[in-house]
Amino acid sequence: MLSVIRTIWNVFLHSFRRRVTIQYPDEKPYLTPRTRGRIILSRDPDGGERCVACHLCSAVCPVDCIALQATEDENGRRYPEFFRINFSRCIFCGLCEDACPTYAIQLTPDFEMSEHNRQNLVYEKQDLLISGPGKYTGYNFWRVSGVQIEGKDKGEAENEAPPTDVYRLTP
Amino acid sequence: MISHPIASIIGILIVALSLSAFLIWVERRLLALWQDRYGPNRVGPFGLLQVLADMIKIFTKEDWIPPFADKPVFVIAPAIIMVTVLMSFAVLPVAPGIIVSDLNIGLLFFLGMSSLGVYSIVLAGWASGNKYSLLGGLRAAAQMISYEVFMGLSLMGVVLLAGTFNLTRIVEAQRGLWYVVPQFLGFVLFLIAGVAEARRLPFDLPEAEAELVAGFHSEYSGMKFGMFFVGEYLGITLISSMIAVLFLGGWNGPWLPPLAWFLIKVFAFLCFFILLRASLPRLRFDQLMSLGWKVMFPLALANLLVTGAIVLAKK
Amino acid sequence: MTNPMEIPFFAAGAVAVIATLLAITRTIAVHALLYLIVSLLAVAVVFYTMGAPVVAALEVIIYAGAIVVLFVFVVMMMNLGAQDSETERKWLAWRAWIGPAVLSALLLFEVIYLVVRAPVSATIGSISTPKEIGLALYGPYLLGVELASMLLLGALVGACHVGRISRSGREVQQ
Ligand code: SF4
Ligand code: SF4
After folding, report:
1. How far is B283 from chain C (nearest CA, A)?
2. How far apart are CA B128 and CA B112, in angstroms?
3. Alpha helical stretches, state H, chain C
């Protein structure tokens, strides 16, 4: 009996406590940069598309919501011809970001993506591609990889030794 | 002051109905307060128009009668609770002159109507043709009968002191001393019985949404569900008003006008009922029964005996 | 008969009779009980119009509010279905009616005879207060009250006994 009364009193004391609710649309909660929300495709520091259309993200995606098709420009640089994410299926697991060798695909802290029409949740490349490098500012895949592209011959990448001349006999 | 009975009927009807609708908002805000939340605060100032929005929603919802239900009884059941509770408001003395029917046996009338209110729940549970509803109805029948017994008994102390069943005269007899002082035990017993009669937590076993879906009103939708809902809030308002009238001197009080005193007392008890809901867990059914019959009932009898003896000795 | 104050009385009486008849002829038990409740409420109104408000209130509280709830409780526990209402219908055959009908007809004639000889209006209008009823119960009718309380005590002891046996049989500790 006494414990019942004490319970009631303790609950009553809560009328003087601070409320823990965050008034969401007026008052946004702080979300860390690592929060897994809306997915974007980022660009190199010098403005080129990062994605090399390797299909790793679409292969790892547990719900198969990424679709893309690879193509090459005239200089041999690979890029996706189309890149489509169906956000009505995406579970924001972040595996695609982990799998991506180029930091192209990144998850952002934006989660406010409600739509009246489900079809509008299918994002195409122009919806996904942003103009900056996203979370990883300095990284440029094409500058560290050994592939030859326009303006960068073999052996000119960072930390890359010049290619061996196989016709020379000296070591 | 309004003294014409028709004016009183309309006034009390409107006030009771809008108060119980407003109570839905009060309850949600207060529960939120005690759980460190905000509750509905979006629709209108402080979320006050939430009630209106809910009403519009509930009126426009499909009113579905399940094919396995017993149709006539299914339709009658929600009406019974509204009728019985609203009838009880008829004998409630709100302020001097504001009363619909100053019956000589007002208290007995209230007890009778509250005992008829059980049918609403029991029949709703039976007519739904659903085992969870049936269980809810069975629980309601057992609970109501058990708690009605000592509810009546706990009030008899007041009747002994006032020497009448007339509620107006009971209020007038409390000019000097509110009955909560000499009848404290009766007050506590009536409070507990009242919570059980209004089927509020911690005595909401007929509903018990954790075990019985929604108990007796699982199958109800639309306005029929709304009637149960409003009926429940009307029930709490009625019990609070009865406590105010029988134990806290009704409209008696210094400085403020009588109507204000009455409303303040009623509102305090409404808040207390909501606080109970916020703080106490639901009883198990056998605990409910043994509490009713083994603790409350003997206490009520003892209270009646002692009060009777004291009243006799004073004479 | 011509007194307008008596109209509610006769209306309530008619409702009581009709509801009782309907209660007998229903094949679904809960519907029958509903009519029984209506009949009891009508009887309460009859008491009220005859100037016995306390008896009316007690009728509602005890009969309609408690005893019939128990009936409903039991009927709900038995979980009657369509089959049972079929058997009910069979039991309502005309042959089964004859005996009770004859007996009730006799009673009805008796009542009509009494009513015609001594009009009921003699009792209408004398309000009996709770105080008078209490004095009457503990005065001239003390023996009846004591007998009834003895009966109830017997029932209580019996209920305790029955409850105890079934509990030890199930071996439930409470
Ligand atoms: S976050 Fe997960 S589910 Fe969404 S696209 Fe990436 S891998 Fe697929
Ligand atoms: S986003 Fe990354 S993982 Fe996906 S195809 Fe492009 S480079 Fe490969």
Report:
1. 15
2. 26
3. 7-25, 29-49, 53-58, 68-78, 82-91, 94-117, 130-137, 142-170
Chain C residues within 8 A of B146 when measuring between CB atoms: none
Q: Are A133 and A45 in contact (CB under 8 A)?
A: yes
Q: Say yes or no to pLDDT of B118 above 70.
A: yes
State if residue A56 touches ligand 1 by the CB under 6 angstroms criterion: no
Q: Measured between beta carbons, which residues in chain B are less than 8 angstroms from residue C74?
A: none
Range A45-49 average pLDDT: 86
Sequence spans of domains, chain A: 32-136
Main-chain phi, psi angles of A25, to 5 degrees: -65, -30
Q: Is any ligand 2 atom within 6 A of the Cβ of residue A85? A: no
Quick check: A11 and B33 CB within 8 A?
Answer: no
Q: Is the distance from CB of B79 to CB of B227 less than 8 angstroms? A: yes
The average confidence (pLDDT) of chain C is 76
C and A make contact (3+ CB pairs below 8 Å): no
Type and span of the H or E element at A59: helix A56-60
pLDDT of B70 higher than 50: yes
Q: What is the third-level CATH fold of A32-136?
A: Alpha-Beta Plaits (3.30.70)
Determine whether the shortest distance from the Cβ of A105 to ligand 2 is under 6 A: yes
- Is the pLDDT at A63 greater than 90? The verdict is yes
Under the banding of pLDDT at 50, 70 and 90, the label for residue C119 is low
Distances from the Cα of C35 to the Cα of B75, B118, B208, B216, C30, angstroms: 16, 16, 30, 21, 9
- For a pLDDT cut of 70, what percent of chain B falls above it? 97
User: How many helices (H) and strands (E) would you count in chain A?
Assistant: 5, 5
- Asked which of B184-198, C109-123, C150-164 is least confident by mean pLDDT, the reply is C109-123
| Closest to A63 (Cα-Cα) out of A96, A20, A97, A103 | A96
d(CA B40, CA B45): 10
Q: Which atom of ligand 1 is nearest to the CA of A36?
A: 1
- The 8-class DSSP code of residue A19 comes to P
CA quadruple A19, A21, A22, A23: dihedral positive or negative?
Answer: negative
pLDDT of C122-153, one tens digit each?
455 566 777 777 888 888 888 888 999 999 99
pLDDT band at B291 (very low <50, low <70, confident <90, very high): confident
8 Å CB contact of A19 and B37: yes
